[in-house]
Amino acid sequence: MKGIPSPCFVLEESKLIRNLELMQSVKERAGISIILALKGFAMWKVFPTIQRYLDGATASSLHEAMLCNEEMKSKAHTYCAAYVPEEFDQISDISSHISFNSLNEYHKYKEICHKKGLKCAIRVNPEYSDVGTALYNPCALGSRLGETYEHFAEGLPNGITGLHFHALCESNSYDLERTLNSFEKHFGHLLDQIEWINMGGGHLMTKAGYDIEHLISILKNFQVKHKVKIILEPGACAVWQTGYLTSRVLDIVNHHGIKTAMLDISFTAHMPDTLEMPYRPTIREGSAEDSALPYAYRLGGMSCLSGDFLENYFFEKELQIGDSITFEDMIHY
Fold first, then answer.
1. pLDDT tens track for 282-326
2. How far is CA 115 from CA 85, 109, 110, 217, 237, in A?
3. Does residue 147 have a pLDDT over 90?
4. Could you say which of 24, 65, 211, 255 has the lowest number of CB atoms within 10 Å?
5. Distance CA 235, CA 258 (A)
6. 10, 200 in Cβ contact below 8 A?
7. Angle at alpha carbon of residue 330, lines to 177 and 32, rounded to 5°
8. How far apart, in whole angstroms, are the C-alpha atoms of residue 76 and residue 60?
9. 266 and 234 in contact (C-beta within 8 Å)?
10. Helix 212-226, helix 13-30: angle, nearest 10
11. Which of 206, 273, 211, 287 is nearest to 241 (CA)?
């Protein structure tokens, strides 16, 4: 640990490989494809390792698509909530699959896609999600993400060969099963018109206790029933519990009895979910929960955002400038 710089994201490669082996087993046993969502993990130095187990990557921007081509050595499965017109020609050159957020977007760009032989999909909203935090729920009422079923009374437009939904976040196989029930209810009449379906990310199959056999059963049964190819695109799943973020105390400020340990990282920049969800990351040197420990400190980030801090963490001994604070399970950032 003493030789590791601060701040630094530290990936433990053996743990990554363990996760990838499990994901490879699922895709082979279920007869599906699994690709890596770069928005969830894009440490390109380990892309050669990931290539040995997964089937490429999904991009949500031009630069992610470029990263997929240049470092994953494969064309991207690309979905953007809206495409920038000046970028679309380049995106279409370096993608194999393009998913559109709306029928309007598809009709705007379909001629380019058809000319280049791309596989096109429409993102749909199954109008069901187990995601409890509104900020992360893509199926909330009035969501801007994906078309709802009433827009498909006359079927799919010519040239659409796939459907795409994303409704999960760190979810289990039973969440997926309930989501698929709603998806089939609303969009089952379209499934004989397509060749493939992208079920998005959020499938946290590498988490302890995840029911792998149930997942495989769901996926196999769906493919047999509907005769479509399934693609999953998890991100954080690949790197769940595979490493940590190092930081150090730069200063300690004390205002009105509130002590804040100023760190050389930023919560809003390095781990925004801690402010957005919010959630309390585990640290190696202290506790987020044990208020019986004698010393309490806010943990402050080094950005200028006034809210760039986490409320009290608790320690056995007083913190000193230069002390290390290690945040566990941070590689998905």
1. 999 999 999 999 999 999 999 999 999 999 999 999 999 999 999
2. 17, 10, 8, 38, 35
3. yes
4. 255
5. 37
6. no
7. 35
8. 9
9. no
10. 40
11. 206
Q: What pLDDT does residue 244 have?
A: 96
Mean pLDDT, residues 247-268 = 97
Q: Is 190 exposed, middle or buried (0-12, 13-18, 19+ CB in 10 A)?
A: middle
Question: Amino acid identity, residue 302?
Answer: M
**What φ, ψ does residue 186 adopt, rounded to 5°?**
-90, -30
User: Cβ distance 238 to 206 under 8 Å?
Assistant: yes
- Could you identify the residue written with the tokens 């781990």? 271
Which tokens is 115 given? 């000319």
